[in-house]
Specification:
The complex is a heterotetramer of chains A (321), B (569), C (460) and D (195).
Chain A lengths: L1 H25 L15 H5 L9 E7 L5 E6 L5 E5 L2 E5 L5 E6 L6 E4 L5 E5 L2 E5 L5 E4 L9 E7 L2 E6 L4 E6 L4 E5 L20 E3 L5 E5 L4 E5 L5 E5 L17 E4 L5 E5 L4 E5 L5 E6 L12 E4 L4 E6 L4 E7 L1
Chain C lengths: L2 H14 L14 H5 L1 H20 L28 H24 L2 H18 L6 H13 L5 E2 H17 L2 H6 L1 H9 L8 H7 L2 H14 L5 H4 L4 H5 L4 H16 L3 H5 L2 H11 L27 E2 L11 H32 L3 H15 L6 H9 L3 H36 L10 E2 L18 H6 L1
Antiparallel strand pairs in C: 2-3
Chain D lengths: L1 H11 L3 H32 E2 L3 E5 L9 H5 L7 E5 L35 E7 L2 E6 L9 H9 L4 E5 L11 H5 L5 E5 L9
Antiparallel strand pairs in D: 2-7, 3-6, 4-5
Helix pairs in contact in D: 1-2
The chains are: A mainly beta (321), B alpha+beta (569), C mainly alpha (460), D alpha+beta (195).
């Protein structure tokens, strides 16, 4: 039976091949994962040269409030966080002092010199005492309004409203004074172009108003009369510039007039001097979680810089040396 | 139904023709497919390269070039799509033609003539069937068995793994482990009375112990209390607390911590350092000058801490129970990580310099949690931090190229920083009389007070061993065999002696004597004073690059293979 | 891309806006469901949800530029999926084709009718529906639906699974004859039969059982749909497939030119179920229109080797047959248990096919190695924020399912083997040439060979 | 399987009476087959839906791995980028249109992200630009989606175009999707665009 021998040999070969095949299928190769041919490779852009990092002290506190929206500090150095229809007051070590409810989740917070809390409830403003009592509700700006930032300077309250991209100025009593940001020339730096709900403003040490013009990657400074005083900001993916659609998302001004900025896309916290000159990086993407977007900033009384990373339930604290 | 011969012939030619077309079109499509698969035009690397170039030098010509190339690529992509689609239609069309014409050619099978053949009887057929069924089942069985057993290695049973993981996690959480160690820490005086880290308490190079032997000989056994083989190599120096001597050793595959009884050299325990979360699977590349365990350990009398060249940092109790372990990231270090650990109260100070970053970390000794971390400027170094207690707090002195800097131990705040060194820094700083001394070969020796340089000297510069300051004197040893004594006041050379063997281990002062172990293993004992006075030169009988450690009446020296305990007998 | 296609496309877009799904009104296609109480309740709930959604909508609103030029931003164009009524058309076509085919097979005994029905099936289910409504593949949906509580199964898939089985139980495998488009392709391209030797057909006929077992196991655990993934014909209709699958499809088609129905006989998992049903069938096609005269003319006519012939039985030694039978009966539990054990032992390897388990393996590898693989899976997992322990637990649960399922599959295969062996030990006395009901696909090729009643059929 | 039982019965016995028993056995099996088929159908019907499921991408989960472009069974993927204009900021510097390193904001090929140039940019008025997708050119690679999501409002989203999708029993992309973003949804819902 010569025929049969061939059959058995064939069968043996087949068995052998099958075993090899199955073994190859069963062995995972984790060393060489499939590459995405259409990768945008943001990682290389997000690389920040180490020499650009500023020396600093770093710590963070875990935030006992998920889905936080806004962060502010009071003059005593406590932290105020809004989220889930409540406002939480923490010490800078993260100890909970007070928690009270608001009718909606506040979208922005600010504390005035009398330690009262201005709280933006989407389209209008409410004033709370530090104990959580509602003192006053302001009329709504317009029905669809969305307030993304509040800044307080003695006698004045400034609101950033992102839907129309306007800045509103009120007196401390809530009387409307004027609005900024819409000139005739759309290409002018002070014509605010706000493509998304990231729109921040801050008061400088000289009590002048700084506003982010995120669509144009500029920071704009206004005179008290509402006219343009100065501006700076370059569009670039490099560490010195702002890139993407809406950056910087948040700013805070330090006592010496320098700026701390927060960006999304390539998540970075950076420092610029009073004239907009790039100084260095406080934190790059490696410091934050992969989902971090739109980091709210606040400064403490000892020049600490607090960064709210709501996606990770953290408040980061940086102190430059 | 019969076809005429002419039709049959035609059908035959048609079948042949369509088969030829099928083969050609099929081949072309396979080629097209392979081309797209290997070089998809719209994922062109060439264009990417040009765009990267464009970032560097922006010019119109380059832009035009990219545009032309891009247009070409897209044309290629869309036309290959078109080709595949057309090819598929052609194939299906010709396939149909082939089948139909073959059918026509073949005509209809005739109803066969019945031929009386050999007819199997029922049981014979069944027996054959049985045979072949068994063979089929046999193949399946063999394949399944072999696959099942040969792939076992790649397979994890996550039912048991998940349970194990949970256990490890809760252990790492620290709730259980904090109980292993008390919350209190020894005070400064207690620490200064021991030899708890590389170069003694806080790395200052002093020992307060007395009744130390001055002369010994490993060959004759003179004054050698005991000698024991260390199972794993390591260039770290022994540390001592009470009656326990600790050592670490590592090779490519394993990392271990050893604890010996100082009285008799008995190995009290040895612990393998594994199961460290995040620990890299492969050992880093190191040179023989550092090895896998060059960094000195430290202890507070309760916990023992060790770090290895792969970034594993581990804490055991003095009884040998692992409290915590973590990996700080494998250092990218072209020689191998060698900075020793220091401890100040509850803070474990780790200098972790590599080619990526120069980090200084404070880690809570009890929990392993990071307290603070700073990035320092400058280049990588192989030196170790020293700690200078100041009142209730302390300063950490660290040197790397080109900076010598002091940091507050509480928060890592930089107190001062001096740009004075250069090169690849091996020697650690020394401290005495409010002055910090830092040195490197081919650079200089500097004395710094509160961030101000007092003086500089360019002779007898240490390269591996660290200087030590004691009284009014500063001692430097070099790998060429120089031993120099300088005045702390102005840096003037008081005396100098050249020995035959170079020094890698650092000199330590105890009982007003300077102990320097040379690379041959000999220990030179010199009196601390304005003039050179050699007291002894005692051989160890094996090479040594470690710094001696001291206990009351005992000296511990780690040779390449053994740990020696020397005591007056 | 020509301007014409462009223009056509724009037109299509305009048309399709009428079909835009509108959630606030109920779809007219299914009135009887919505009239039920639950239907009403659903509407109310939906309204409540919609209303509450409106108020919270403000969260996700985006600042809209106010265009001075009066530019009106276009709406996002989406084309609604194929409407549900077409699924009923599919089921109706299947039903009609089954009826027609059964009539051609049993009533008319017309090979021509069978062939043209097969052509119709290829045209509808293959060319028009691109092969993706298919009874063979429906096994997987059924097993997944039976094992996983939250798996929703479309009505049409149930119909595609049940109808052919029912028809087979009544009329034999008329579905296979050509209503199944895969069977139809193989039927239509078959030119000349090369008879396969017993040593090849016997071991190979074990494959469909393995394929069925694996397909059910993998579908029930949610790992993969292997029947669809390794469907050799579907690529022809889509005119695109994985390179390997194109090669596989071509091989099967070329083989089926000369070997009767290679896929149906040696791979098709649904054929196993149909074979069982056909064995029990109330009516089944016959080779001869009336009674067999044992002329042996049809002996080699069957391309799938499904004609059972009468064989002479030699008398054996006394007790030999009984002993053989008893041995086979004793072998049955041994085979079942050992195959179940084998199935269990290979379950770990098989579980690696499940994406959750393979992800867990990757994450474990990362944990062990202390570095990330940086694969897309790993990146997506780490950014999802799911704790690794959760993943490991899920993977463990799936592995438990695999252990059970794999043992059962093994036991099933052991049983199939044991019964096949048992069958060889049982005497089957047979006088006439008749189709082997389990394997006969009712293709009707043998009709022509039978001389009985030829005169009649001509006059018809 | 049942066949063999009946054969066994037959082999053990001969005669018409026995054949009657065999027929009885067979009828029993037929009844069992019918009942089990019926009950399985009944159970399945209770879980079934008239609203056929279709495959769709959940943009919240999508990670833009690029496999939509490479793993669809069709020659050009049924996954397309869709533009939710309501979410768009009409930016001049569009993260979905331009490469992140772009210097000049013009339509030069060197500035564009899309490998097939399926994203078109139209000037509306200062400072607004409108972006449209030429679906015929789009291969669903998701590069623009990643760019828009990272830097912009996320108005560009990958979705399965039901006009093209063959609605495979198991979507070949879903099998390899690293984020499990391809899910079955009722046909009446059709799309999962973020709004």
């Amino acid at each position: 039976m010569k025929n049969r021998i061939w059959i058995y040999l064939l069968v043996l070969l087949l068995t052998f091949l099958l075993i090899i095949l199955f073994n190859r299928l069963a062995k995972p190769d984790f060393e060489n994962p499939a590459q995405n041919p259409y990768d945008l490779s943001l990682d290389s852009l997000a690389q920040i040269p180490p020499e650009l990092y500023l020396p600093l002290d770093y710590s963070y506190i875990d935030l006992p409030l998920p889905q936080a929206k806004a962060l502010a500090t009071d003059s005593a150095g406590n932290l105020l966080v809004a989220g889930q229809q409540s406002i939480l007051v923490l010490t800078c070590e993260g100890k909970e002092l007070l928690r009270f409810n608001t009718p909606q989740t506040a979208t922005a917070l600010a504390v005035d010199h009398q330690q009262r809390i201005y709280c933006a409830l989407e389209n209008h403003l409410a004033l709370y005492s530090m104990q959580g009592d509602l003192l006053k509700t302001f009329p709504e700006l317009h029905p669809g309004a969305y307030i993304t930032s509040i800044a307080y300077s003695p006698g004045r309250i400034y609101l950033a409203e992102a839907v129309k991209g306007d800045v509103y100025e009120f007196t401390g009593d809530g009387e409307f004074v004027k609005s900024y940001g819409k000139g005739r020339d759309k290409t002018a730096p002070d014509f605010l172009n706000i493509p998304s709900l990231y729109f921040d403003l801050a008061i400088g040490p000289d009590n002048s108003l700084w506003v982010t013009n995120t669509g144009k990657h500029k920071l704009v400074n206004f005179h008290a009369d509402g006219s343009l005083r100065s501006y700076w900001g370059v569009t670039s993916a490099a560490p010195e510039g702002f890139c993407g659609c809406c950056n910087p998302t948040h700013i805070v001004l330090m006592e010496d007039g320098s700026f701390i900025t927060a960006e999304k896309g390539i998540v970075r916290i950076k420092k610029y001097n009073y004239g907009g000159g790039f100084i260095g990086v406080l934190a790059g993407p490696e410091r934050f979680g992969p989902k971090a977007v739109g980091l709210d900033l606040a400064k403490g009384p000892e020049e600490q810089i607090y960064v709210l990373e709501a996606e990770n339930n953290k408040i980061h604290c940086f102190r430059l040396k | 139904m019969k076809n005429s011969p002419a039709i049959k012939k035609l059908a035959g030619y048609l079948a042949l023709l369509s088969l030829t077309f099928i083969l050609i079109v099929g081949l072309l499509m396979i080629l097209n497919h392979l081309q797209i698969k290997t070089h998809n035009p719209i994922e062109s690397k060439a264009i990417e390269q040009l765009i990267i170039q464009l970032e560097k030098e922006d010019n119109q010509q380059l832009r035009e070039e990219i545009r032309a190339l891009d247009l070409l690529a897209r044309k290629a992509y869309f036309s290959s799509l078109w080709q595949l689609k057309t090819g598929a239609w052609l194939l299906i069309g010709f396939g149909l033609l082939f089948v139909v014409s073959l059918k026509v050619y073949n005509g209809q099978t005739e109803v066969p003539e019945v031929q009386p053949g050999k007819v199997l009887h029922f049981w014979a057929l069944k027996s054959k069937e049985r045979h072949w069924i068994a063979l089929g089942a046999g193949i399946v069985l063999v394949v399944a068995l072999v696959v099942s057993f040969s792939t076992r290695a790649y397979y994890t049973d996550f039912n048991s793994y998940a349970a194990g993981e949970k256990k490890a996690l809760s252990a790492a959480e620290g709730e259980a482990s904090t109980a292993l160690l008390p919350d209190n820490f020894p005070d400064i005086e207690e620490i200064l009375a021991e030899h708890p880290s590389f170069r003694g308490a806080f790395g200052l190079g002093h020992s307060r112990h007395s009744e130390l032997p001055v002369e010994w000989d490993a060959g004759s056994g003179k004054n050698i209390l005991w000698k024991t083989a260390v199972p794993l190599p390591g260039l770290n120096s022994p540390i001592v607390w009470g009656e326990r001597v600790f050592l670490a050793g590592a090779d490519e595959n394993s990392r271990k911590v050893f604890c010996y009884n100082s009285e008799n050299g008995e190995l009290l325990w040895e612990r393998e350092v594994n199961n460290i979360p995040g620990s890299p699977a492969e050992a880093p590349e190191v040179t023989d000058d550092t090895g896998y365990s060059a960094s000195g350990m430290t202890t507070d009398g309760q916990g023992v801490y060790a770090i290895f060249a792969n970034g594993d940092l581990v804490c055991f109790t003095v009884e040998g129970e692992q409290v915590w372990g973590l990996n700080l990231g494998q250092p990218d270090n072209h020689y191998g990580h060698s900075s020793s650990l220091q401890l100040y109260r509850d803070k474990l100070i780790v200098q972790l310099d590599d080619n990526q970053a120069r980090r200084l970390l404070a880690i809570l000794a009890r929990s392993g949690k990071s307290l603070w971390e700073i990035k320092r400027e400058g280049d990588i170094s192989w030196s170790s931090p020293i700690i200078v207690p100041k009142g209730e707090s302390a300063e950490i002195i660290v040197n790397n190229s080109p900076y010598v800097a002091a940091y507050k131990v509480d928060n890592g705040e930089e107190l001062w920083k001096v740009n004075c060194l250069s090169g690849e820094i091996g020697p650690s700083p020394a401290y005495g009389n409010g002055m910090v001394f830092a040195v490197n070969e081919y650079a200089k020796l500097v004395a710094i007070k509160e961030g101000e340089i007092l003086w500089e000297n360019y002779n007898f510069l240490s390269d591996v061993s660290s200087p030590v300051a004691y009284g009014d004197y500063l001692f430097c040893t070099t790998s060429y065999g120089d031993l120099a004594c300088l005045s702390q006041q102005d840096g003037s050379l008081l005396w100098h002696h050249e020995f035959d063997n170079g020094f890698y281990g650092s000199p330590v002062v105890a009982e007003d004597k300077l102990y320097c172990t040379d690379r041959a293993g000999g220990t030179i004992v010199v009196e601390v004073g304005p003039e050179f006075k050699l007291l002894s030169h005692s051989p160890l009988g094996e090479r040594s690059d470690a710094t001696p450690a001291f206990a009351q009446g005992k000296i511990f020296i780690r040779g390449y293979e053994h740990l020696f305990c020397i005591s007056k007998q | 891309m020509s301007l014409a296609t462009k223009a056509m496309r724009t037109e299509v877009n305009h048309q399709k806006t009428d079909f835009e799904p509108n959630i606030s009104t109920s779809s007219p296609g299914k009135p009887f469901v919505w009239t039920t109480f639950t239907g009403l309740l659903r509407v109310v709930l939906l309204l409540i949800v919609l209303l509450s959604y409106q108020s919270s909508f403000a969260e996700a609103r985006f600042p809209k530029p106010e265009f001075e030029s009066g530019h009106v931003p276009p709406e996002t164009q989406t084309v609604a999926p194929r409407a549900a009524k077409w699924e009923y058309v599919d089921v109706a076509v299947l039903f009609v084709l089954l009826c027609v085919m059964s009539w051609f097979v049993l009533g008319k005994r017309s090979r021509k009718g069978i062939v043209w029905t097969a052509v119709a099936s290829v045209l509808y289910f293959g060319v028009y529906r691109l092969g993706c409504v298919c009874s063979v593949g429906s096994i997987q949906n059924i097993s997944m639906s039976l094992s996983q509580a939250d798996y929703i199964i479309p009505l049409s898939v149930i119909a595609f699974f049940v109808l052919p089985l029912l028809f087979t139980l009544f009329f034999g495998r008329t579905f296979c004859a050509g209503v199944c488009f895969m069977g139809a392709i193989q039927e239509l391209v078959h030119i000349k039969t090369v008879k396969l030797p017993l040593w090849l057909t016997k071991p190979l006929s074990f494959l469909p059982y393995i394929y069925l077992g694996l397909a059910v196991l993998l579908a029930a655990t949610g790992a993969d749909f292997i029947i669809c993934r390794y469907d050799p014909f579907i690529g022809f209709f889509r005119m695109s497939a994985d390179f390997g699958m194109v090669i596989f499809g071509v091989i099967i088609v070329v083989l089926s030119m000369f070997i009767g129905r290679p896929y149906c006989r040696f791979l098709c998992p649904y054929g196993v179920l149909l074979g069982w049903m056909s064995t029990l069938s109330f009516r089944h096609t016959t080779i001869s229109p009336s009674s067999c005269v044992q002329c042996k003319l049809c002996e080699d006519s069957c391309p799938v080797n499904a004609i059972a012939k009468p064989l002479p039985v030699k008398t054996e030694k006394p007790n030999q047959g009984r002993r053989r039978l008893i041995f086979m009966l004793l072998l049955l539990p041994v085979l079942v248990i050992s195959a179940a054990w084998l199935g269990r032992s290979i379950s770990g390897t098989l579980s690696g096919i499940h994406p959750t388990v393979s992800l867990a393996q990757e994450i474990k590898w990362e944990n062990d190695q202390g570095r990330k693989t940086n694969s897309e899976e790993s990146q997506a997992f780490h950014s999802s924020g799911i704790p690794a322990e959760q993943l490991f637990q899920d993977a463990g649960e799936i592995q438990r399912q695999f252990r059970l399922g794999s043992s059962l599959t093994g036991a099933f295969l052991g049983l199939v083997l044991a019964l096949a062996l048992l069958k060889t030990a049982v005497l089957k006395k047979q006088k006439n040439y008749e189709p082997d009901k389990a394997n006969c696909v009712s293709c009707g090729r043998c009709y022509r060979y039978c001389p009985v009643g030829k005169a009649n059929s001509v006059s018809l | 399987m049942s066949d063999q039982h009946s054969n066994k019965l037959k082999s053990g016995n001969t005669g018409n009476k026995k054949i009657g028993r065999r027929e009885f056995f067979k009828t029993g099996l037929r009844a069992a087959a019918l009942i089990s088929l019926g009950s399985a159908t009944g159970y399945l019907l209770s879980k079934s839906t008239l609203d056929d499921p279709v495959w769709q991408i959940d943009p919240e989960k999508c990670v833009q791995c690029g496999r939509c472009a490479t793993h669809c069974v069709l020659p050009v993927s049924a996954v397309k980028c869709m533009h939710v204009y309501k979410m768009c900021g009409y930016c001049d510097l569009c993260g979905g249109y331009f490469r992140p390193q772009v210097k000049k904001l013009d339509t030069g090929a060197e500035n564009q992200l899309c490998p097939t140039k399926a994203l078109k940019r139209t000037f509306v008025e200062p400072p607004y630009y409108r972006y449209d997708i030429d679906e015929e050119l789009c291969n669903g690679c998701g590069k623009c989606v990643e760019g828009c999501g990272s830097f912009g409002n996320g108005s560009l989203q990958l979705q399965i175009n039901h006009n093209i999708c063959t609605n495979c029993n198991k979507c070949a992309i879903a099998r390899v999707c690293p984020a499990g973003a391809i899910i079955r949804i009722p046909a009446s819902k059709g799309y999962l665009l973020k709004k």
